[in-house]
Amino acid sequence: MVRIRWLDGIKGLAILWIAYFHGFEAYLNRRLPSPLESHYFARFLRQADPQSAGALIARVGQAIFAAVAGVGFHAVGVFIVMSGFGLSYSLARSGGPRGGWRGWYRSRLVRLFPMYWAAHLLYLLSPFQARLEPIDYRFVLSFLGDRVVPIYYIFYYLNPAWWYFGLILELYVVFPLLFSLMRRVGAGWFLTLCVAETVVSRYVLLFVLHTSGYYLLGAFFGCRLWEFALGMALAVWYQRDRARVDRRLFSWGGLAAGAATYTAGLYSYGSPLAYTLTDGLIGTGLFVILANLAWSARRFARIERAITYVGMWSYGLYLIHQPYMIYFGERMRWATMAEFTVAAIPLIALLAIALSGLERIINRITDYVLARPERRAAQAA
Predict the structure, then answer these.
(1) What mean pLDDT comes out for the span 360-377?
(2) I want to staple 35 with a disulfide (CB 3.0 to 4.6 A). Which of 17, 67, 111, 141 is the partner?
(3) What is the dihedral of CA 223, 176, 139, 121, to 10 degrees?
(4) Virtual torsion, Cα 162, 165, 170, 175, nearest 10 deg
């Protein structure tokens, strides 16, 4: 697939935000109120107790910054949207994979697992990481790709960010069925059906089965299908009429709609019933917001190159960054918020550079290992 720069830009912005959030959360250690709780600004200012107008302005600025940093986990929903887009865009014109679905699965799993396995091995060997849980039988389950069973013991095990890997595997399993359905009913109806399925699934799990919230977060793919289907539908529309999608998405009206959708998602936290809509609204709105930010970054060539580079190699950073950022955040609790941020920026940059290099090495090794049998078969033929 020809790379679409603003999509790489979205991934770059999203993974950088997530990486900073994980360090920031460990740094705060719940010393400040959550931005998702009611009366956040009043509670923040009451705790800070500014004594002058200048101090009040500074505290308001800190409250806004802490609120934005504190919801960095929302960017995961953007990755779900982009996963649906990336899987569907190259198939939207051809109607299916050229080598059949078996070859498609092979290429997808070859893309996913080697770096995922390398992340597990690196966790065993590398210093300066937060050791959140002991190494036990769950390490083997995780290494094999299981992040669901047993749900309470494996979902956040070792490296909490790895729960997303289990969700992606589930979505890969059902993707041919989803793609076939989308071709049959059209992208618009497909998205509508998936939104309805998501809301119903979340309602049943919340109010009928009273099950773990992990299932809503991603242990059951049906609870995050809204975001994935949005990416799939957008890929079809973008393949058909790229200029039209660009005009609508990258406009003041599109940005306002994205901001309104994201705001509705934030307010939906206040009601258990409205929580059936939360992740879908947040993922949709935030995707539009970050898309516009990535599009606007074209005006600043160096910044755009940096964030698109990070986005191109975001997989390795996603898999490995969290234990390092937690370790760093725990040891920076003595610092001010500004000092922590100044120190975190070069660390994240170093991780992005190092892990992009590691990802390239793993990809080359994988290609070499898999190419050897193919070369032997060709020579024998």
Answers:
(1) 82
(2) 67
(3) -120
(4) 150
pTM: 0.94
Of 168, 210, 203, 178, whose CA–CA distance to 278 is shortest? 203
Question: How far apart, in Å, are the Cα atoms of 35 and each of 185, 248, 283?
Answer: 40, 30, 17
CA 329, CA 26: separation in Å to the nearest integer?
5
Which token pair is 123? Answer: 């966790």
Q: How far is it, in rounded angstroms, from Cα 229 to Cα 79? A: 12
CB 22 within 8 A of CB 326: yes
Q: How many H helices and E strands in the chain?
A: 17, 0
CA-to-CA distance for 141 and 136, rounded, in angstroms? Answer: 9
What is the SS3 assignment for 144?
coil
**Using omega within 30 degrees of 0 as the cis cutoff, is the peptide bond preceding 127 cis?**
no
Summarize the confidence of residues 299-322 as an average pLDDT.
96
- Binned at pLDDT 50, 70 and 90, residue 165 comes out as very high
CA separation, residue 325 to residues 25, 165, 337, 349, 350 (Å): 9, 19, 15, 12, 12
Torsion of CA 323, 327, 330, 333, to 10 degrees: -120
Please give the structure tokens belonging to residue 49. Answer: 């107790």
Amino acid letter, residue 169: L
Q: Is the pLDDT confidence value at 344 over 90?
A: yes
Q: Which residues contact 44 (CB under 8 A, 6 or more apart)?
A: 32, 33, 59, 62, 63, 66
Alpha helices in 93-212 (DSSP H): 100-125, 137-143, 151-154, 163-185, 187-203
What is the amino acid identity at position 121?
Answer: L
Per-chain mean pLDDT for the chain: 94
With a pLDDT cut of 90, the percent of the chain lying above it is 88
**SS3 at position 335:** coil
